[in-house]
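Honest question from a wet-lab person: if I give you the sequences of every part of a complex, can you actually get the arrangement of the whole thing, not just the pieces? Trying it with mine:
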Amino acid sequence: MVLIYQGPIDVDQLLSRWYNAEHNRNYGAMVSFVGTVREEGGIEALSFDIYRPLLEQWFDGWKTKLAKEGALLAMAHSEGDVPVHKSSFACAIFSRKRRVALEMLDAFVEDFKANAPIWKYDVIDGERIYAAERSTPMAGSGLLSKEG
Amino acid sequence: MVKVEFLGPIGKEPIEIDAKTLADVAEILKQDPEIKVWLENCAVAVNDTMVNRLDVELKDGDKISLLPPVCGG
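Yes, you can. This is the full assembly:
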């Protein structure tokens, strides 16, 4: 299950929680990624909407894929506003040897960017503006614009 | 009747329409200029399963979700 935070992620607490839950289960590697909101373009925060049913399906697909490699996946994401210099996304992969975790983390984050049902908004002067130009159409987009 | 919901930034309340296939849904949504502009970039799910064919048959109570371009993280 994806951990959903209302607002910023408590990174200290989260990474400790993940590490402490798994380090004595004989995984030789824990590789984590934390995404932090950068200050640029005059934003005071980023804001996120999430469609949970499809996020869970997408995440379960990745968990199953990693389990076949003997690896374990954990993920957290924020919903609502996350101020600059706070974190909105974190994930970690545990594997017996480092190579699987290092390689799969990259593939996971790339697919996350393209196919996780999460929408991003810039918050400027209190207004929420959809980050259209930084967003990616999901696989299969445009179906309803086709001629039947 | 089937329910159509517009996720994320589309910012429109769900609607209920009469439709037997996704092609019917497409024809109805194209009538609304506010929605039509999103169709080219939206992916579609029926009852929370992603679909990629217009001939998907619908039944009473089905939920169709429109998913605009995403950007997590």
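Two things worth pointing out. DSSP finds three helices and seven strands in chain A. The longest helix of chain A spans residues 98-115.
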